[in-house]
Every structure is written in C-alpha cells, then in structure tokens.
Amino acid sequence: MVVETSGHFWRFGIPSEGIAREKGELMITVDGDFLREMYRRMSRIRKFEDTTKELLLGGELYGAFHTSTGQEASIVGSCMALRTEDSMVGTHRSHGHPIGKGARLDRLLAELMGKETGVNQGKGGSMHLSDFSIGSLGETSIVGSGLPVSTGAALAYKMRGEDKVSLCFFGDGASSQGTFHESLNLAAIWKLPVVYVCENNGYGELTSAKDAISVEDISVRAVGYDMPGVTVDGQDVLAVFEAVSEAVERARGGGGPSLVETKTYRFENHAIGRLPEHYRSAEEVEYWRTERDPLVLFRQVLVERGFDEQQVDDLDAAVGEEIVAAIEFARQSPAPPPEAAFTHLFAPSAG
Amino acid sequence: MRTVSYIQAVTEAMTEEMERDESVFIMGEDVAWNMMGDCTGMVEKFGTERVRNTPISEAGFVGAGAGAAMVGMRPIVHMLIAPFMYVAFDQIVSIIAKSTYTYGGQARLPITLRAPMMYGVSNAAQHSDRPYATLMTIPGLKLIAPATPHDAKGMLKAAIRDDNPVITFEDRSLWGQSSEVPDGELIVPLGQAAVRREGTDVTVVTVAGAITLGLAAAEQLASEGISAEVIDLRSIVPMDTDTILESVAKTGRLLIADPAHEMGSVASEISAVVAQHGFWSLQAPIARVTTPHTHMPFNADLEKVLLPNTDKIVAEARALME
Ligand SMILES: Cc1ncc(C[n+]2csc(CCOP(=O)(O)OP(=O)(O)O)c2C)c(N)n1
Ligand SMILES: [Mg+2]
C-alpha cells in the first residue's frame, strides 16, 4: 500500500504479518501485534463513542459532547507514533485521544458520568477528558489554547536534555487562532521537539474550513515558520502513523518541530443532540460513513495482508466486553462528595 | 543586614533560586539584555537558555511557561509591564488558573508571572493599569504585591518555590527604594499582611505602592493627634483578612488606600469583608482612597489628581475621626 497524497511517503514492502519501511537512515518496523493494537485502539474509540452517545441521548450522561467518531485513524496513527513517556495535549474533541494513547476506558467513562473515580474526579467532564498517567497534559476546551502548552512542554524537554517529544492535537478551526501562529514561531526559533497535528475535519462548529481558512491545505502554513509541513489522508491509519513517526523522529533527533495535517471527517454532528445539521449535506455525511470509514478501511488492509476476518472480529468482541465492564465500573462508582467542589483549587505547596 | 533596593532584591531572589534549583528559569521580552535593569548579571551567570529572550508573543510564551511548569519546570515569566498580561489573558485564566482544578489535581502549575506596574508617569491608559483586581476574581491564582525590598526578595523566592501559579505585582514606584534586607536565606510566606505601624484610632490598609503614602499620612496624622495603624496588605490572594479584622476591632475605623480603579477593587473587597464580619466594631463608615472609574490620561496634571496621595489619605482619615 502506497499513500498517494503526496511525495512525502516512504514506500514499504509488506510481509503478511508486519511492515518494514525505509527512508534515508530511518527504518521503522511494525509487526503484526502492533497492527492488531492499532486496530484495537481504533475499535475502542469507536465503541466508546457509540456507547457514550447512546448514554447521552438516554439521559445518563450530560454536558457538551463532541465525539471523535470518524477520526479514529488520525488519533491512533498519531498516538502510536509516540512513546508512553511522550506527552500530548488535546482539545474539546478529545474522548479519542487518551484512548489512542492507551488510557483505561473505565476511568474515562466514570469521568463522563461525573464520578469520583473519573480521571479528573468529576471536575473535567467530556471536554477535558485527560488522563495524565498516559502522558496527557490536558484537553483544553478553549479552541487553540493547548498549542502554547505543548510548546512549553517541548521547551522543558529540550532544556533538560531529555529525548521526549510533545505532540499537540488541534482542529482546523484552531489554526486560525493567534496561539497557533505564536506557538509554531516559538517552536521554530527554539527548535523544539514538538509535533503539531492538525485534525482537519472540514468544519469548525458549523462553518466550513473553506469559508474560514485562507489555504486549502493547512500544512502549507508550516512554510511561514520554516518547518516541514505535510498533509496526509487522515482516514488511513498507516499513512498518519508514517507521517507522524517521521515528524516524531525528527523532533527526537533534535531536528525541531513539524506540522502534520490529517484530512479527516467527523461522522457525528459538532456536538451530540444539540445542534442543527443544515450546514452539510446528508450525501456528504453518507459518503464519508460508507466510503471513508477508517475502521472499515483498516480492516481491509489487515485482511489483504493476511489477517483473517475472525481475528479482527475477536478484537472487536474483546473491546465490547471492556466497554460493558467500563459502564458497570462507572455506574457503581460514587459521586464526589460536596466538598470536592473546593479541592484541587491549589496544589499542596512544597514551598 | 545590608541596604538593598527593591529592584536589587528582585534580582537577588531570582538569582538565588536559579542557583539553587535547575528547573527555575526566566523568560520574557529582552530579559537577557537586562532592559529593565532587574536581571543584572543573570545572563552572564546562567546563559541565554535560562535567561531566555522571547519574541513579542505573550499568549505564546505565557502558555509555554504553563506547559513547561506542567512537566516540572519552575518558570518565571517576565511580563515587562502588567497590562501586557491582557494579551495572554486566556492562557492565564483558562490554562494557568484552571488546570489543577479541572484535571482533578493531576496538573501542577509552579509558574511565577512578574508583572511590574508603572502608573503616574504619563504613559496614558494602555500602559498604566494596576490589574490585580481583575485577576483577583479568578480562583486558582495567588496574587502578591510586595512593597519593601525585604518582601520583594522573600516573597518572590516563596512564589518561585510555590507549586501554584503566583502573579507578583511590582509597583515600579518602589523599585528605587532601599531598605534593610538580611544576609542569607530569606523566605517570606505568602498570605500574610504586615502591620507596618501600630496605632489605635484608624486602620489604614495599603495596597502595593500605596504603602509609601500610608506611612507618610500616618506621620502627619500623628502630629495632629490621630493614631493610625498601617497595614501593608502584601498578599492579595490569599488575603489575610484576620489581621485586618483584628486591627479594625481595635481602632473601629477603616481606610483602604489602593492605587487601582475603585470599582470592584481590592479596596472594595476589603470593605465588603469588614462590613460583613467587622460591622459591629465600626464607629464610622469605611473610606476608600483609590483611582476613580476613568482611564489614566496622558497629561501629567490630569493624571496626578486621579491617583491616591498622602493628602487624600490624611483628609479621609480626619473625616473618619469626626
Ligand atoms: C476560543 C473559543 N471560541 C469558540 C469556541 C466554541 N467552539 C467550540 S468547538 C469550536 C469549533 C472548533 O473547530 P475545530 O478547531 O476545527 O475543532 P473540531 O470541533 O472540528 O474538532 C468552537 C468554535 C471555543 N470553545 N473556544
Ligand atoms: Mg474542525
């Protein structure tokens, strides 16, 4: 499989249980287990979102609710290019990001229910579903506000001589914020180990990127900051993995920041159950759902490469069981006590 | 003991903390060039990595300070002057003030923002703000306004070591003032007001540079037979309301001198606290000597009459005694 979007991609030969790839000195080998894990994480996101949507519409969950459905390849391809100790920053649409980085589902679901066992002890909810134990440095719901944070984490890694990488997820809409431009400039002048991943799902709320953004490919904005920029098919997990891996390796090796744009699509409306959807056509949504579903596309790739369908079905089934257990855990968990509204305003000080 | 200026005390505090802890660094516009004179000798000692010039990009570098703090650094971010914080307001409010809470205690933000204030020097409205009251309304931030070289050093060191975000408002009218600072380690805990002069008739609480005016007024009042107790607030959040209430219980009268605009000010907050919790001690209405609710004009004469001064404090205190 060769990605056709641009000339930036490595061609790779494919043994039936894994992939070996080459470009220059960089060689990344991913084996069958890795591919299975990729699919499993995508499946976890999809099932998590389908379930939480149902629970929301059923009245068991509440609050603003932006789902990652349709963007699984972009998320997992990016996260799996990172090491566990690398950090990432997310957005208001970040149920998927911690799952992509390997978070437990039960504590995420408990957070959506506002429970004490939730990742944020019930104080963050859907738009701040961040699990620091897997390297999240927050999911922040003010559009564009996470970019400086990820840039600062990268600054710290560089100052301390650590070989960690900071990755920042943000949307097409966020690329119009000043923080995007300020962050890329800072990262470029300081040569920071940061990878900016713009998940371009074509819309910011209801407004089309075509009407809001001066360029067709947001990656070209990298030129203004003298860093590499690349656009990839965000529905193709391997293409995303490849492009982000290259950027991560560059960052880790001292080569500075990169901008990767993943062209993707959100299958659900901007937020679940609350908004009109007259800004995009039913045909468009249908096209993406039937022709460009990242799980279906990746399943095809796996089968073409020698996995049997049953193996993939088994992965889905195991995820289904995990979800059932997560719901049970969240339902059984206690609500935070009233005093919790006053805790964590400040960290206990060492000073 | 040595005699040290406020600005030297600030430099000492930063230098000592950077010597003691590798994770402390300073960044801001032209800090490595020591443009303001408050980073003397620092770039020579620590280099441009830790005394780091930034582009003119307040949202970017304040937010980068937050990100660095979240992964264990202790950045000091130099704002040049306080109103430049407005450009970074979202990073201060949405990220710095709220992350520890929103993420259920998973994040720590040991960041210090230095916000020098210059007013009364004909810089007109945009450059002259004293915006601590604006920030006081946001939970999750510690705000301080040290008013002596001793506190400038001891409180800045405490701020740098604090695991929470601290914004320090340095009144530039104090930068040139000198007084005694002990040799060796000096840490002044945050959250404590200081009684600068004891008295029995009226409590005068001062904010930031108003300490100079409050002490001069007390001197004059003493010559008229009025005994003023002067309290330097020092820490705006957390606010040491106990010290103020105790003093009012003794004097029965309260005057607050605050260089910021009156509406929704620190002076207003102290007034509310005392009206609510010290009402039965009061023998006279509470007086506020502040700046009226208008902008700072460029014209020096127009500006001067708006700001608090010693005469205004003396006159208001006298009126309380009638
Ligand atoms: C500063 C700010 N302005 C407006 C909003 C309201 N808002 C929430 S999501 C959103 C769209 C963001 O678009 P994009 O960055 O493309 O992310 P997407 O929702 O498509 O994932 C907007 C405008 C906000 N949360 N923050
Ligand atoms: Mg979008």
Which bin fits the share of residues in helices of chain B?
Answer: 25-40%
Number of strand segments of chain A: 11
Molecular shape of chain A = globular
Question: What is the terminal separation of chain B in angstroms?
Answer: 43 Å
CATH architecture descriptor text of the largest domain in chain B: 3-Layer(aba) Sandwich
Distinct ligands: thiamine diphosphate, magnesium ion
- The global form of chain B is globular
Radius of gyration of chain A: 20 Å
Class by helix and strand content of chain A?
Answer: alpha/beta
Roughly what fraction of the amino acids of chain A lie in strands?
5-15%
SSE layout and pairing:
The complex is a heterodimer of chains A (351) and B (322).
Chain A: E1 12-13, E2 18-23, E3 26-31, H1 32-57, H2 72-79, E4 87-90, H3 96-101, H4 105-112, E5 136-139, H5 146-159, E6 166-171, H6 178-189, E7 194-200, E8 203-204, E9 207-208, H7 209-212, E10 229-233, H8 237-252, E11 258-263, H9 282-291, H10 294-304, H11 309-332
Parallel strand pairs in A: 4-5, 4-6, 6-7, 7-11, 10-11
Antiparallel strand pairs in A: 1-2, 2-3, 8-9
Helix pairs in contact in A: 1-2, 1-10, 1-11, 2-8, 4-11, 5-6
Chain B: E1 2-5, H1 6-20, E2 24-28, H2 42-50, E3 51-53, H3 58-70, E4 74-78, H4 89-97, H5 99-102, E5 112-117, H6 124-127, H7 132-136, E6 142-144, H8 149-161, E7 166-171, E8 178-181, E9 194-197, E10 202-206, H9 210-223, E11 228-232, E12 235-237, H10 241-251, E13 254-261, H11 266-277, E14 287-291, H12 300-306, H13 310-321
Bound molecules: thiamine diphosphate and magnesium ion.
